[in-house]
Amino acid sequence: QVQLVEFGGGLVQNGGSLRLSCAESGRTFSTLVMQWFRQAPGKEREIVAGITQSGSTAYYSDSVKGRFTITRDNAKNTVYLQMTSLKPEDTAVYYCHTYYDQDFWGQGTQVTVSS
């Protein structure tokens, strides 16, 4: 069973930074591709970034490329999303996601960027 718990959301000013963490409680983390999604009010959930099992490859949506960095620490069963140069349009609930026979989602963490 895969369980994902996110940490690190909050309120930040335009141009600020935040780091999100997502911890996986099972023993399969190093075998999982990990992703971050976000969902803004009234909008569909969208992928933000993803990282392969070893961490050797990362990919980003165009809207965050150059500002966000996804990394992982397999020894800590944790994936991170470092967010810099935050904009009000980054305001959303951010979710950690993986797939292991089925989709698994964290509970979400709110990120609010004030203008």
In short:
By secondary structure, the protein is mostly beta strands.
Characterize the structure shown.
With 115 residues, the protein is mostly beta strands. Helices cover 0% and strands 51% of the residues. It has no helices and eleven strands. It has strands at 4-7, 10-13, 18-24, 34-39, 46-51, 58-60, 68-73, 78-83, 92-99, 103-105, 109-114. The protein is globular, with a radius of gyration of 13 Å. The mean pLDDT is 96.
Instruction: Indicate the low-confidence ranges by residue numbers.
Output: none
Q: How widely separated are the two ends?
A: 40 Å
The SSE string, one letter per element, is EEEEEEEEEEE
- Alpha carbon gyration radius: 13 Å
**Could you give the count of β-strands?**
11
> Shape, please?
globular
Fold blueprint:
Elements: E1 4-7, E2 10-13, E3 18-24, E4 34-39, E5 46-51, E6 58-60, E7 68-73, E8 78-83, E9 92-99, E10 103-105, E11 109-114
Parallel strand pairs: 2-11
Antiparallel strand pairs: 1-3, 3-8, 4-5, 4-9, 5-6, 7-8, 9-10, 9-11
